[in-house]
């Protein structure tokens, strides 16, 4: 009977630069996953930090090649979209690569301040401040601008600029304007709720920015939900945006930059095909062609890649803890975690991930469904959720363990799942392991966070004497004191 390795090898181009098998065990970027499983156990989340740097370098190369090919006179600036993953270890790896940041909320700014204290961010680092801004956000931005940080608030509504008029004391404030793009024809709405509509942009500049000596409009911002892909919709919206840029550039000499957002795709299956260089070439060529036609200088180009930066660095590894045959035809492999709580995009958006067996590659295979631990009927991952039928090794549960991995899970999952909070059925957040390389190129691992424990959950829910504002250590100490008191009561009785 054919083995699981035979199936993967015949179905896909395998092994790949990222995945290979040694001694019937899966390697992820040459990381021996079973060694990590044996050391830390499951369920676990894994972040391979060098992948982040690899993607940043790749994107810079794409734009460098395109600008050289078309003799493009503007500069390219890579920004990381912090909402994709706010973790310190991610930001530290990102900022090793001389890149800049894009923020979405007031609390992002506090992270930027912490990074500045650590000398990871300088006052010259671009902080592209996006999002619909409430008073605390505009307050933080004003304070940073007054202190000399290189902050560009991207105006998302017509009244936002009023928040800066009386709070900013710096001599110059550079603004951006986000333009509200039309959505795809099959979307629920015609136009994005984010940004300022095309017909209002010129008037906003003339009435609110141009008359103020310290205000300058430096950037127009463009983003569509479907991301950067070769479709008539994308090229139509990009062209419309660039014609607006050219129109505004003729009345606003300070305007010299565009932010084309994020949306560069990542690999979600082995059938993934995307010509990154061809797409970037066409973007640069289109921008230059429209500017030349309109007789205006080409703009500097900013991007704010999030998922592309960090997505392929992540993996989640589970152990199969049971096999259940339902209706005499549906075979379920039950895992020691939950898709709903730990990979919310997989059920909330039907997001696909690369799914592979971690071990037992020399075993025969069978079609399966994967079931999570919660009592919710949607806590599963099967053919409909995946890009193809799910097959995994047949194994003897009494004699051997079976582990599976879902890969390229590094963006958004922790924040969408409410990291460290209360999850459905009180499923704990899994442990998180960081994989890096030392100066000699040797792999090293460290535990970023252990599996969430009951004391943390009790504290959040207000049980067991835990008070709001207690640290995890204080909550644990309080629980230990209660246990000691209970033991004394037993002894006295």
Report on this model:
The chain is 34% helix and 22% strand. A hairpin with a 5-residue loop joins strand 21 and strand 22 (443-449). It is built from 16 helices and 22 strands. The protein has helices at residues 4-11, 33-40, 50-69, 88-95, 106-117, 135-146, 162-165, 198-209, 232-249, 276-294, 307-310, 339-342, 344-348, 413-417, 454-461, 472-492, and strands at 19-22, 25-28, 31-32, 44-48, 76-81, 100-103, 127-129, 151-155, 173-178, 215-221, 257-259, 300-305, 314-326, 330-335, 354-357, 365-367, 369-371, 380-381, 391-393, 403-407, 431-437, 443-449. 39% of the residues are buried. The radius of gyration is 26 Å and the shape is globular. The strands form 4 sheets. Strands 4, 13, 14, 15, 17, 18, 20, 21 and 22 form a 9-stranded mixed β-sheet that branches. The protein has 493 residues and is of the alpha/beta class.
SSE layout and pairings?
Layout: H1 4-11, E1 19-22, E2 25-28, E3 31-32, H2 33-40, E4 44-48, H3 50-69, E5 76-81, H4 88-95, E6 100-103, H5 106-117, E7 127-129, H6 135-146, E8 151-155, H7 162-165, E9 173-178, H8 198-209, E10 215-221, H9 232-249, E11 257-259, H10 276-294, E12 300-305, H11 307-310, E13 314-326, E14 330-335, H12 339-342, H13 344-348, E15 354-357, E16 365-367, E17 369-371, E18 380-381, E19 391-393, E20 403-407, H14 413-417, E21 431-437, E22 443-449, H15 454-461, H16 472-492
Parallel strand pairs: 4-21, 5-6, 5-12, 6-7, 7-8, 8-9, 9-10, 10-11, 11-12, 14-17
Antiparallel strand pairs: 1-2, 2-3, 4-13, 13-14, 13-20, 15-20, 16-19, 17-18, 21-22
């Amino acid at each position: 009977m054919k083995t699981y390795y035979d199936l993967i090898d015949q179905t896909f181009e395998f092994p790949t630069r990222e995945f290979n098998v040694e001694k019937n065990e899966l390697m992820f970027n040459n990381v021996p996953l079973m060694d990590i499983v044996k050391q830390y156990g499951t369920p676990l989340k894994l972040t391979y930090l060098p992948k982040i740097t690899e993607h940043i370098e790749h994107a810079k190369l794409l734009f460098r090649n395109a600008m050289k090919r078309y003799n493009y006179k503007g500069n390219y600036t890579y920004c990381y979209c912090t909402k994709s993953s706010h973790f310190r270890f991610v930001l530290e790896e990102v900022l090793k690569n001389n890149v800049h940041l894009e923020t979405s909320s007031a609390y992002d700014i506090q992270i930027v301040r912490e990074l500045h204290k650590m000398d990871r961010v300088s006052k010259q680092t671009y902080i592209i401040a996006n999002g619909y801004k409430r008073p605390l956000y505009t307050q933080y931005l004003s304070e940073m601008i007054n202190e000399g940080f290189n902050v560009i608030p991207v105006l998302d509504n017509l009244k936002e600029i009023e928040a800066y008029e009386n709070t900013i004391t710096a001599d110059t404030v550079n603004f951006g304007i986000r333009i509200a793009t039309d959505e795809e024809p099959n979307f629920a709405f015609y136009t994005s709720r984010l940004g300022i509509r095309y017909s209002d942009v010129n008037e906003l500049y003339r009435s609110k920015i141009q008359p103020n000596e310290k205000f300058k409009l430096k950037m127009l911002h463009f983003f569509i939900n479907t991301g950067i892909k070769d479709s008539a919709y994308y090229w139509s919206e990009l062209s419309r945006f660039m014609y607006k840029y050219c129109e505004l550039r003729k009345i606003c000499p300070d305007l010299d930059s565009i932010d084309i957002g994020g949306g560069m795709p990542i690999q979600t299956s082995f059938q993934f095909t995307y010509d990154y260089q061809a797409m970037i070439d066409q973007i640069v060529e289109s921008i230059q062609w429209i500017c030349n036609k309109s007789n205006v200088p080409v703009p500097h180009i900013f991007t704010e890649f999030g998922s592309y930066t960090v997505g392929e660095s992540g993996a989640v590894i589970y152990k199969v803890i049971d096999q259940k045959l339902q209706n005499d035809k549906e075979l379920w492999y039950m895992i020691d975690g939950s898709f709903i709580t730990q990979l919310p995009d997989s059920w909330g958006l039907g997001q696909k991930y690369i799914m592979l067996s971690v071990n037992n590659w020399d075993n025969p295979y069978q079609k399966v469904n994967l079931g999570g631990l919660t009592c919710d009927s949607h806590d599963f991952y099967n053919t409909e959720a995946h890009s193809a039928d799910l097959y995994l090794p047949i194994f003897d549960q009494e004699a051997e363990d079976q582990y599976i991995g879902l890969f390229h899970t590094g963006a958004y999952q922790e924040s969408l799942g409410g990291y460290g909070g209360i999850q459905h059925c009180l499923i704990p957040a899994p442990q998180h392991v960081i994989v890096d390389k030392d100066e000699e190129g040797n792999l090293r691992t460290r535990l970023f966070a252990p599996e969430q424990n009951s004391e943390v959950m009790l504290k959040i829910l207000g049980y067991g004497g835990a008070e709001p504002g207690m640290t995890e250590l204080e909550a644990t100490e309080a629980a230990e004191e209660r246990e000691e008191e209970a033991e004394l009561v037993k002894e006295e009785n």
